[in-house]
Write a structure and sequence with these properties.
Layout (H helix, E strand, L loop, with lengths): L2 H14 L11 H10 L5 H14 L3 H6 L2 H8 L6 H16 L8 H4 L7 H11 L9 H10 L9 H13 L6 H14 L18 H5 L16 E10 L7 E5 L10 E2 L2 E3 L6 H13 L2 E14 L4 E13 L9 E5 L11 H12 L1
Parallel strand pairs: 1-6
Antiparallel strand pairs: 1-4, 2-3, 2-7, 5-6
Length: about 350
């Protein structure tokens, strides 16, 4: 093990550490929240969400006692909503099982909802000062370059090798600062494209740089083609004409679980868009509708697929809407929708209705 790596990184970190609202806190709960929010999300995006979250749920107990709908509302816009649901469930579990104190042991942390191998290591090292390794996207890239790892970084063999390096080169002291130094290096200098090797504190120790292959590390396997779905949604007016429209709550588990949406679904082969929407209304709500004007077309990319959603004004012909596939239904005025957690596209539709 070359101790120069940790020394150079810690010296660099002492002078160049990013100023972030969750750093330097003795509150393990705040560290935990930040690590969950930072999963697959940029730091600049997370900061305002973290600050609002900590104002509303300043303690683990406050989060455990909160209603899930409010939790989802405060998470709205961060995406990957299973993170919020898992964080909420884990807070309730910690309150019930550990007296409201987040456990310090990595093995116990990994048993909590939403806390995997990386997050457990980050919490244990950063919040509790333990010598525990962590490996996120930035750290994976830094290690793949320093040690010229030629295995695909996300293959089982590559992942195993990178975890071995993360554990082997973890210093006995200041493990949490060392991990955060690796994160900052990956975020600001050891970038995915055009790494700034001239300002890297470990450039002279980087095997990939010596070989001139730093931009080819980490080795990444080709990504599969992302499917694209065409989707319809109904903005169904209440028969009374009082301005209310129907929204449905998605099932608790799965994509956007517990969030509210304008009901609809995917277009099938051979269907035009109005036929798709009429079928979805029969299957989801047990009603017949007439499909009117196109209200808008909305596009969004999720992790594993992309959608183009067509929202139509609709009118009820027969039947009373029933939640055959949803958890709940509500007739709401546009201004009332502000209090209901929604995904990005549905929030855009709600904003369109509110604007008139």
């Amino acid at each position: 093990m070359d101790s120069r790596i940790s020394k150079h990184l810690l010296d660099w970190y002492d002078q160049n550490a990013r100023r972030l609202p969750w750093r330097g806190l003795s509150d393990s709960y705040a560290v935990w929240v930040s690590e969950i929010m930072l999963q697959q999300t940029r730091v600049d995006t997370v900061i305002p969400y973290f600050e609002r979250w900590m104002q509303r749920f300043p303690t683990l107990a406050a989060l455990a006692e909160a209603d899930q709908q409010e939790v989802l509302k405060y998470w709205e816009g961060l995406g990957y909503y299973s993170r919020a649901r898992s964080l909420h469930r884990a807070a309730q579990e910690v309150a019930a099982t550990y007296g409201g104190e987040l456990p310090r042991e990595r093995s116990l942390l990994e048993k909590l909802p939403g806390i995997g191998q990386y997050t457990a290591g980050a919490i244990a090292s950063i919040a509790f000062g333990q010598k525990e390794a962590a490996l996120d996207g930035n750290i994976r890239r830094v290690y793949a370059r320093i040690f010229n790892v030629t295995l695909p970084a996300k293959s089982p063999q590559g992942e195993r090798r990178l975890w071995e390096l993360a554990a082997e080169y973890l210093p006995d002291e200041r493990a949490g600062d060392y991990i955060q130094a690796l994160m900052d290096l990956g975020a600001g200098i050891c970038l995915p494209r055009t790494p700034d090797c001239a300002h890297c504190p470990v450039a002279d120790l980087c095997q990939a740089r010596v070989l001139g292959v730093q931009e080819e590390r980490p080795v990444m396997e080709p990504k599969p083609e992302i499917p694209h779905w065409t989707v319809t949604a109904a903005v169904l007016a209440h028969p009374s004409g009082d301005g209310r429209v129907l929204v449905a709550q998605r099932p608790a588990k799965g994509l956007l679980g517990g969030m509210w949406e304008f009901p609809g679904g995917k277009q099938e082969d051979g269907e035009d868009l109005p036929a798709c929407l009429r079928r979805e209304m029969r299957e989801e709500l047990g009603i017949e509708v007439s499909v009117g004007n196109l209200l808008g077309v909305y596009r969004h990319a999720y992790t594993h697929f992309r959608v183009t959603l067509h929202a139509f004004e609709c009118r009820l012909i027969t039947g009373e809407p029933r939640p055959l596939e949803a958890s709940d239904l509500r007739w709401l005025l546009p201004e009332e929708m502000k209090a209901y957690p929604m995904g990005k596209i549905d929030r855009q539709i709600a904003a369109r209705l509110l604007a008139g």
